[in-house]
Design goal:
By secondary structure, this protein is an all-alpha fold. About 75% of the residues lie in helices and about 5% in strands. The N and C termini lie far apart (about 40 Å).
Amino acid sequence: MDIVVIVLLGIALQIFKAREQAERVALLGSYLAKFNIEKLMQDVLGGYQRALGEADAERQAQVWRYLAPQEQALSEQFGRFVLEFAQVYEARARVSRLPLALPFVSLAIPSSTFDLRKLMSVHGHGISQAVANAQGLPAKRRAFNVMAELLLMQHSCHWFCRSKLVASARLLGRHQTAYAQVVEAVSPETRRAYTNLIGQLSR
């Protein structure tokens, strides 16, 4: 009988978790759908890979120039997304700090969560500053900085929709980059604001 109860509880948790995650995907998607952020991000990251793999300095410079309008559009559109997403009701924007997804955590233990609206604001500022090259970095280092800011933002989106563990696995699988590496690669200002908001980093 105890085994049956445990199995039923496990099934119920899976059902509620899937429902909660579907709601989060729909919520975030409804805001992102208003913009062309995903396509611009793919274009910029793909362009960076071409530029960084280009041996000829002049051709590499041409790729940087070609990407400039797309970088600017991406930065501007993400800034607008941040402003719109800030209107989301706080309870719907809470993200669990736990590595695995558990339903109702944001309601039962709000102290174990953080606000995605604030985190998106951190990412928006970081992306804007990286695109504007506020640190005055050389072209290649600037590209790595922008890439890191974008990948960390994408990790946060996946964390919100699924879990931190899934987000980190996707980052490693799609970009062959560990979560801790991305955090180290963003600007010191972004890293400071990010870690202050999410709490203690775990690798």
